[in-house]
Amino acid sequence: MDFPFAESYKIKTVEPVYRSTREQREQWIKEAHYNLFNLRSNQVFIDLLTDSGTGAMSAQQWAAIMNGDESYAGASSYYKLKKVVEEILGFPFFLPVHQGRAAENVLFSALVKEGDIIPGNAHFDTTKGHIEFRKAVAIDCTIDEAYDTSVSHPFKGNIDIGRLENVILRYGKEKIPFIILTLTCNTVGGQPVSIENIRLVKKLAGQYGIPLLVDAARFAENAWFIREREEGFRNRSVREIVAEMLSYADMFTMSCKKDGLVNIGGLIGMRSKEVFDKASVYNIMFEGFLTYGGMAGRDMEALAEGLEEVVDEQYLESRIRQVEFLGKKLDEFGVPVLKPFGGHAVFVDALAFLPLVPREQYVAQTLAVELYREGGIRSAEIGTLMADRDPVTRENRYPRVEYVRLAIPRRVYTDNHMLYTAVALARIFERRNFIRTGYSIVKEQPILRHFTVHLKPVG
Ligand code: F0G
């Protein structure tokens, strides 16, 4: 008999989660203006809104917190983190910030100006927000397969090299302060980028003298997929693959709330002293002094430990397998999901799930609200609401695919929570043909509207 898979950790501390009735949830979601961000956490049974900052820390991380050195300047916790950034990520210069978008704010303040063009694989929403806020333009050069839910491709996060070169030729290298590679690519479904693709992007960038910026939020999950799926990497350690992946980057930004295995924190890594000096000014203005930025000493201690733990293959196997467990169950139940499954989340194809709801009534949001009603499960809309309006025409930007993202916090839920989630979606799927209307917007902000939007049911 084959062994079933078992996690590489056991549970020391537990936290209660609350079940509710359908009537309670109907009331709560109405009060929340049909925006899942407005729910209180105790109104949610299983929270799959995000894998960001929601993970469980290890006993070693909690122990490290007691060693936090809270000195304003030159804290030993900073030097501990510096050593880990050098050893694991391979960067000589870094700045600590409070989270990923702070890294974008600081670095882009130093490097991005009005009219600039920033190509990459699909940009994350805060990344795009920080580009467009500076009146620059983000251009998505992801391969076409990424947007075709019917094809399976091992590296759907890859950049289409021809498309990238066309952007460089069309706008000129002077207009491009850097190219961004997001590893894994959240916006297209937590899909990885291959080493081969990173090498090709680096080569092209090098030919035109354009720096390469890696968004390393989920760097370890990306490395795991390279080990699993890319020819020639089976016998390499995740640590080695991480080192190679990041060796091609001139800079990185990182939300440490994902693969840093911490609840708050971010990093900017740089090879150029000149860029470091420029960014340092903004770091001091927006975040804090260079040796703590946006983090307390104890946060830096927990992060230094988290970066060591996340490259452990047994941990990564547990992590990726749990996401896969949920994906496989949904697939078994006939629910349309993006394949291959992502590293941090399973993405439900909302357009295939609810074909009768009109596009302009926010199909993915309709499904996300329905999932909350059905099972008290909170998910995230990755669709038209998140895509915002075109900055010039102010029309809705309809993405090619609309997803409901089920993001799995790290080391938090059990497989039974995953099964419960799959059953809730299967139950909605059975009655999908009765869901024919969605929502309209009552109130919205000009940028990043999905966080605060107010909606009302159509009809
Ligand atoms: N880059 C990527 C690829 C991300 O997924 C995120 C955050 C950020 C940057 C910004 O980092 O939240 O620390 O400021 N993603 C979260 C999510 C919010 O739910 O996917 P942050």
Write the layout of secondary structure elements.
Layout: H1 22-31, E1 46-47, H2 59-65, H3 76-89, E2 93-97, H4 100-111, E3 117-120, H5 125-133, E4 137-140, H6 161-171, E5 179-182, H7 195-208, E6 212-215, H8 219-229, H9 238-247, E7 251-255, E8 266-270, H10 273-286, H11 297-310, H12 313-332, E9 345-349, H13 350-353, H14 363-375, E10 377-378, E11 380-382, H15 384-387, E12 403-407, H16 415-430, E13 439-443, E14 454-457
Parallel strand pairs: 1-10, 3-4, 5-6, 6-7
Antiparallel strand pairs: 2-8, 7-8, 9-12, 11-12, 13-14
Helix pairs in contact: 1-14, 2-11, 3-11, 4-5, 4-10, 6-7, 8-9, 12-16, 14-16
Bound molecules: ligand F0G.
List keywords for this structure.
459 residues, alpha/beta, Aspartate Aminotransferase, domain 1, Aspartate Aminotransferase, domain 2, 2 domains, five-stranded mixed sheet, three-stranded antiparallel sheet, 40% helix, binds ligand F0G
Describe the model:
The protein is of the alpha/beta class. The protein folds into two domains: 175 residues, Alpha-Beta Complex (Aspartate Aminotransferase, domain 1); 252 residues, 3-Layer(aba) Sandwich (Aspartate Aminotransferase, domain 2). It is 40% helix and 12% strand. The chain has 16 helices and 14 strands. Helix 5 links the parallel strand 3 and strand 4. The structure holds ligand F0G. Ligand F0G binds next to helix 4 and helix 5.
